[in-house]
Amino acid sequence: MEERIIIAGFGGQGVMAIGQILTYAGMIENRHVSWLPSYGPEMRGGTANCGVIISDEPVGSPVVVNATAAIVMNKPSLDKFEPTVEKGGKLFINSSLIDQKSQREDIEVYYIPANEVANELGNARVANMVMLGAYLEVTKIVDLESIIEGFKKVFGEKGDKLLPINKEALKKGAEVVREQMKAMV
Amino acid sequence: MAKVLMKGNEAIGAAAIKAGCKYFFGYPITPQSELPEYMARELPKVGGVFLQAESEIAAINMVYGAAGAGARVMTSSSSPGISLKQEGISYLAGAELPCLIVNIMRGGPGLGGIQPSQTDYFQATRGGGNGDYRLVVLAPANIQELADLVIEGFDIADQYRNPVMILGDGMIGQMMEPVEFKVPKKRELPEKDWATTGTLGKRKPNIINSLYLAAEELEEHNKKLQAKYDEIRRKEVKVESYNIEDADVVIAAYGTTSRIVRTAIAKLEREGYKVGLIRPITLWPYPYDEFNKINDNCKGVLTVEMNAGQMVDDVKIAVEGRFPVYFYGRTGGMVPTPDEIVGKVKEIYGGEK
Question: Terminal CA-to-CA distance of chain A, rounded, Å?
């Protein structure tokens, strides 16, 4: 089993961070993992993305070409990575910032109003964790406890006081997507 | 120590400190700047010195000075910056000074770009500076191997009194993987009785120099260097092979490209193709002998690189005309995809499995 995930959005939306948390969680569960960021002459408001691989075998190419899943946080990311998702794969769209539907009919698409959910929780910056929560609920790639451990590794001590709201964001993301999963059946 | 998730650039720094490196001289350049950043943060904590020099040329000459005084020292840069260091590297080799030089390659020539590349293979293995000298060149494919080779690289440098280069690319510098910093197998290292550490009036001064004006003396010095390089060729070759006794096509690739090749090989195997891999870990000394183990029925050897075909020369030397040699590469910071490599292998098969 190999999960290849693209996570993409604006710089500042926390796409690198949730990629790292997910990678850490995979490592904690003794899977083979890699995290590869886009790097370049990026600017504020530009696009950022990372590719995460979680596998039962040693990771070959760390470049995600045929993604099993993609989490897109803004419209340019949807345009760029919608075609990257392989047939039967999963696409998670931040519908708060993307008012467009996916054109793909051969993949599972979930629409998560991540910014609205985050704002309701009182911190717009946890929109990324809402998306991650939805992704985990659908894919069950790693356990939630491993994600919490991963969060602690990535943010260290300064993450302690932010942990409760981030946990809440993961939970809300899962709830939102559960409704959609019911509707899809 | 347990496994941690680390960027390649930071893992180099952590491994170097683990190896006892106390001095880092460098100048920032993408895509390796996380390494000097890490050293700036961490070296003072272990009583070391991080110094951002005014230029790459200054940095490599600071390495010369610290190495001459017997310190474990390193520098790092990326392609155009490594070009600037070449004079100093030749001097280090000439004066037989141990040090670790890290090149996290980006596309060239000139200032080029900042995306991953392997375009400095010639420069690293043939010598970018003047004179008959060699660097030991290590090409890690994952972050664990990167950390291990940094630690061992310092020992190799000290054992042979020779600069050692870690040759990676932007991908391995930027990516994160789990890594564990293992205590390396200790080598028997000679005393640095040649270092300029002060005589205390008890011995003649040691002199660090690469200037020999008498031709006879310089030839003797060169003979000594060549004998050392021969010993390194005999003792320090590192290579990993996969399925070359049985393969119809063997791919030669190093560093991160070898991982993309691994993914391509797995795809090809699912379709019934028999494909092997030779992955040089030392690019100098090159694992020429490994190619002798390829079975006689092999249809050809395909070299895959992120350049226009540089290692392919060494592959041709290694196969000595036994097999046709093919090449596939991308340049400018473009990364080959597994499917492109699959296509090339099928082309060599000529449509028949």
Answer: 25
Q: Could you give the ipTM of this predicted complex?
A: 0.95
What average pLDDT score do residues A160-185 get? 94
The Cα–Cα gap between A117 and A175 comes to 11
The number of C-beta contacts closer than 8 angstroms across A and B is 59
Contact yes or no for B175 and A65 at CB 8 A: no
Which of B101, B139, B168 has its CA nearest to residue B282? Answer: B139
CA distance B341 to B330: 11
Contact B175 A33 (CB under 8 A): no
Chain B interface includes A37 (CB < 8 A): yes
Measured CA to CA in angstroms, residue B54 lies from A61, A112, B57, B60, B85 at distances of: 37, 50, 8, 11, 13
Chain B residue set in contact with A, beta carbons under 8 Å? 3, 5, 30-31, 114-115, 142, 170-171, 174-178, 256, 259-260, 262-263, 266, 335, 337-339
Residue of chain A with shortest Cα separation from B263 = A60
Of residues A39, A40, A153, nearest to B5 (C-beta): A153
Domains by residue range for chain B, with CATH:
4-235 (3.40.50.970), 240-349 (3.40.50.920)
In this structure, what CATH number is given to the domain that contains residue A103? 3.40.920.10
How much of chain A exceeds pLDDT 70, in percent?
A: 97
Structural domain boundaries, residue A25: 2-184
Query: What are the phi and psi torsion angles at B197 (to 5°)?
Result: -110, 10
pLDDT tens digit string along B14-58?
A: 999 999 999 999 999 999 999 999 999 999 999 999 999 999 999
